[in-house]
Write a structure and sequence with these properties.
- This protein has an eight-stranded parallel β-barrel.
- The protein is globular and about 65 Å long.
- It contains 14 helices and 14 strands.
- Helix 5 runs parallel beside helix 9.
- The protein has a domain of 261 residues: TIM Barrel.
- It is of the alpha/beta class.
């Protein structure tokens, strides 16, 4: 979801934490906090791959892990076993598993029993009817079928017209439905709570829950949320309220089990102009609901040159000010892309429990431990928070042994970010 930019001058000062810290796993400022988020869809990770993952500061096993080997069934339990192998090899490495938040993946065993009636016996392994009672209003529905996506099938090369399994289509949860939220906490979340080798859960698609009617994949428009259409409406607030309620309940349950959630693509402090008011979640409200709890947020697809146009610059400055733990992912254009500018952007905001992801995709082959990670670790600790004021849209931050900066005043080709390997005083002059 695009982030809104700020038009007010910002000079960030140290502030109190808005979350309970520290999180229940260590964070090492002597290392660059590179994170890994991959998996092998057909076999267990090899000893060599387990060792490679151990170089990172955080590891997340994606939904693709063992998905083919398990034939899209009971995948989570194979991933729990994989996490145990990884934890045994690297006891100090924080390990997360993947879960959907705003959408209901059919490869989850508990979820499949709720949604399967929509596609049982249907042609092309796709839904041909609504989800049967008593679960119909647990997902967003059109007049004839659920609002659903085939993206998982496509990502694994199965296509979307006639995949070989029913289990790769996924509807969107109707987060306005209290029974659905109860089911999520009482059943979907339970295997994660009891998994001894994991430290947290990565929740994907947070925004798809409250923006569901506006997505309308393949033209499928939700009709079962009163007073909420693809164009908006007052009734859409029930989806946003439901998302916040579920996030708080999930966080409390995980915290009680000594684990934390990471919510991806949650919202923004200012509404992006391209997003209708009905489908915008004010991040202020989410943080208020999670106040005092342990959690992380996540950005997917952050790139240095687009920091201002995407709105990520203003939003991440505010999160840094509030000391909100954040994951930042960059989609690399190629395995050989220079990461310097992207790492500089990350260092501009980095606080405790910030992690950086960089990949070309989501399988083992798409990840590499880049030399700049070890180079950036030499920066040491920051000497303060970013300082700057738009206009110009330029910010700087000094570290013990380097300085980082970003300048977004050149409209022609976007923002320019860099690490200066010189004494901070000279670099910032």
């Amino acid at each position: 979801m695009p982030r809104a930019s700020s038009l007010v001058a910002i000079t960030i000062a140290m502030t109190t934490h808005t979350v309970a810290t520290p999180l229940p796993f260590p964070y090492d400022w002597s290392r660059f906090p590179a994170a890994w988020f991959g998996g092998n869809d057909t076999v267990w990770e090899s000893a060599e791959q387990l060792d490679a993952i151990g170089r990172y500061s955080l590891a997340i096993l994606g939904w693709q892990s063992m998905i083919t080997a398990t034939n899209w069934t009971a995948t989570l339990y194979a991933q729990i076993n994989q996490a145990a192998l990884l934890k045994a090899r690297h006891p100090e490495l924080p390990i997360f598993l993947y879960a959907g938040f705003g959408f209901a993946p059919g490869f989850d065993t508990h979820i499949w029993e709720v949604i399967r009636t929509a596609s049982d016996g249907c042609p092309h392994h796709q839904p041909c009817r609504p989800v049967a009672e008593p679960f119909t209003d647990w997902v967003l529905e059109t007049e004839t079928v659920p609002v659903y996506s085939m993206s998982a099938c496509e990502q694994m090369g199965l296509g979307y017209t006639n995949p070989p399994t029913d289990r790769c289509w996924n509807p969107m949860w109707n987060l306005a439905n209290a029974s659905m939220r109860d089911f999520f906490v009482e059943h979907v979340l339970q295997p994660y709570l009891s998994a001894p080798a994991i430290d947290g859960v990565f929740f994907d698609g947070f925004n798809t829950g409250y923006q569901g009617p506006s997505f309308a994949p393949w033209g499928r428009v939700a009709t079962n949320v009163p007073n909420c259409t693809a164009a908006g409406g007052a009734g859409c607030a029930a989806l946003r309220d439901g998302a916040i309620d579920l996030a708080e309940r999930v966080t409390r349950a995980l915290n009680q089990a000594g684990k934390v959630p990471m919510f991806s693509n949650v919202g923004s402090f200012q509404r992006p102009p391209s997003v209708a008011p009905a489908f915008w979640l004010d991040e202020e409200r989410l943080l208020a609901a999670l106040d005092g709890l342990d959690y992380l947020l996540n950005y997917e697809g952050v790139r240095a040159e687009a920091m201002h146009s995407s709105g990520d610059l203003a939003n991440m400055l505010e999160e840094a000010r509030r000391d909100v733990p954040v994951g930042v992912h960059t989609y690399l254009r190629s395995a050989k892309e220079d990461l310097s500018a992207h790492v500089a952007v990350f260092l501009l905001f980095r606080r405790d429990y910030w992690f950086y992801f960089a990949s070309t995709g989501w399988l083992d082959k798409d990840w590499a431990y880049h030399p700049i990670f070890d180079t950036a670790a030499k920066c040491g600790k920051p000497l303060g928070l970013p300082t700057g004021a738009p206009p110009p849209l330029a910010y700087r931050r000094a570290y013990e042994h380097c300085a980082v900066s970003i300048n977004c005043t050149t409209a022609k080709d976007g923002c320019h970010a860099a690490i200066t390997w010189a004494p901070p005083a000279a670099a910032l002059a």
